[in-house]
Design goal:
Elements: H1 2-38, E1 44-48, H2 52-57, H3 63-84, E2 88-95, H4 103-126, E3 130-134, H5 142-155, E4 162-169, H6 171-185, H7 191-196, E5 208-211, E6 230-233, H8 243-253, H9 264-270
Parallel strand pairs: 1-2, 1-5, 2-4, 3-4, 5-6
Amino acid sequence: MLKRRETYHGVFVYNIRLINEQVGLVLKKNVSEQSDSNQSVPQHIAIIMDGNGRWAQARGKKRVMGHKAGMERAREMAEVCGELGVKYLTLFAFSSENWNRPKDEVSFLMELFATSLKNESKKLNKNNVKLTIVGDKDAFDSRLRKAIDKAETLTEDNDGLYLQIAANYGGRWDIVQAAQTLAAKGQEITEEALQSELMTADGSEPDLLIRTGGEQRISNFLLWQAAYSELYFSDRLWPDFNGDALKEAIADFNQRQRRFGKTGEQVATESP
């Protein structure tokens, strides 16, 4: 009799636990959906895509395989941003300092860049994405420059997601070239004039700047443009940073109070 009671009790407890888990999942889903609907979406997200090489090495693969995986993740980010209503997405693909990496890795990256432009440009155009490459393109070979020109021309009239790929880009270089352009024109160097000559002059300044890979620095990326960006650092290596991780970053962004030099009380009273 005692064993039967224990059995009934065990079944009862198991069923209660199961119901609680199911209810919990439903509540969690409802809260998540409600949270997503209440969140404001950053109009401009910039990402430093760090960790490709370490991701590959942790799996016993060559570093270049991490870059291939990272390219797939970049495609996903563009798709998710388009779905969420993000207007600008800027991806840091290759810095001006990355030329110092091993020659075989740099060669692979240049080949991957050219191949991806060729394979992805038609899909981007179909999805109404405007593609722009920001950086010093003169350092690229003629084949890559032609691929860039072709992809940019194909998508130049699109007005959906504005996708900017920073390649052979450095924030210091960007500021210097803008100042040199103004000097050559004989124009006065003011903040407004300088900003108009930056490589990203056609886009807004980033609301949210994300860096993956665990490092907490911006590595010469959008130094001028990120003056008031909210910074988000993720320990995930870039190939592991999926759409859900991006939404977590956006949720964190929505917890911030962007003051732009004002007090918290001023911002609170100005909020609708």
